[in-house]
Amino acid sequence: MQQNNQSKKVLLKITDLKQWFPIKKTKLFQKEQLYVRANDGITLDIYEGETVGLVVESGCGKSTFGRTLLQLYPQTEGKTMYYGRTLWEMAPDYVEHTVKNIVSRKKKIRELEQKTMEVASDLEEFEPFDDGNYFALYNQNMKLEQGALPSGFDINAGFESGKLSTYTSSQATYYYFDVYNESEGKWIRGVRLASGLGRELSIFLLSLAILAPLSILGMAWGGRRILRKAFLPIREVTQMAEEIAESGDYSKRVSTEHQKDYVETSLII
Fold first, then answer.
1. Pair 75, 18: CB distance under 8 Å
2. Which secondary structure element, helix H or strand E, spans residue 128, and what is its range?
3. Is residue 8 within 8 Å of 49, Cβ to Cβ?
């Protein structure tokens, strides 16, 4: 058996794999960190064409071992190679990201399907956009009549009533759902962003990145001018007071060029 294995490629090479989970400290001044050692020092070679089964008691770490190999849990220690490459090279972070976002994606899909069917059932209340969902109205020949679609989406993507489909452009991936209203002879298409940045959002973020610094500079410059103008009379009064103190000439007065009106008043007794 060993000779046969030597002629085969190692599909999965696991060396001293450890998967430990930290236990929450129960004492205020507890220094030592305790762990649950779900997997502790597993070494295993799986060869191409082989099927490997793990048969152990419940709670011994079988599921944890599988999840760690899929990167759903980061390895505590050890090394895993797939055809001579690490799992991080073969299947990077998007594996964990995709699995963690399954629930939210299902919610978006259900919402898109439900709202598209609602629009199809009442065309008089047709609106081209609603809470992240785009809607477009096509005639029975599948020609666009009205509505709004993301700029990166192909308006001529294939139609199939009641089926959820995906369309991927260079910028993003979209879900779209079609419903055919037989009584009106119209197609209603609902589209929602699945991943990536739509063109409109990309343009907005780019504009924000350019305009935000300019706006800050403009506000700083304008604020500086306002403050300088506001404190100019105070500066002149201070300067005149210093001149009067030095010269002893009490006939000097502060210029009134910054006043709109000057009215001299006297107290009548």
1. yes
2. none
3. yes
pLDDT at 116 over 90: yes
User: Distance (Å, rounded) from C-alpha 245 to C-alpha 253?
Assistant: 13
Under 8 Å CB-to-CB from 170, ≥6 apart: which residues?
A: 152
Residue pair 14/31 in contact (Cβ under 8 Å)? The answer is no
Find the helix or strand (DSSP H, E) in which 241 lies. helix 199-247
Q: Which residue has the higher pLDDT, 209 or 87?
A: 209
**% the chain with pLDDT above 90:** 24
Amino acid occupying residue 67: R
Kindly list the distances between the CA atom of residue 33 and the CA atoms of 26, 114, 145, in Å, as whole numbers in the listed order.
Answer: 10, 49, 65
Q: Which residues contact 139 (CB under 8 A, 6 or more apart)?
A: 145, 185, 186, 187
Average pLDDT over all residues of the chain = 79
CA distance 125 to 24: 55
Angstrom distances, CA of residue 134 to CA of 32, 117, 128, 204: 55, 13, 6, 18
In this predicted structure, the answer to whether residue 160 has a pLDDT above a threshold of 60 is yes
At 33-91, the pLDDT tens digits run: 888 999 999 999 988 888 888 888 888 888 999 888 877 888 888 888 877 777 666 65
Rounded to whole angstroms, the Cα distance separating 31 from 28 reads 9
200 vs 116: which has the higher pLDDT: 116
Phi–psi pair at 229, nearest 5 degrees: -70, -35
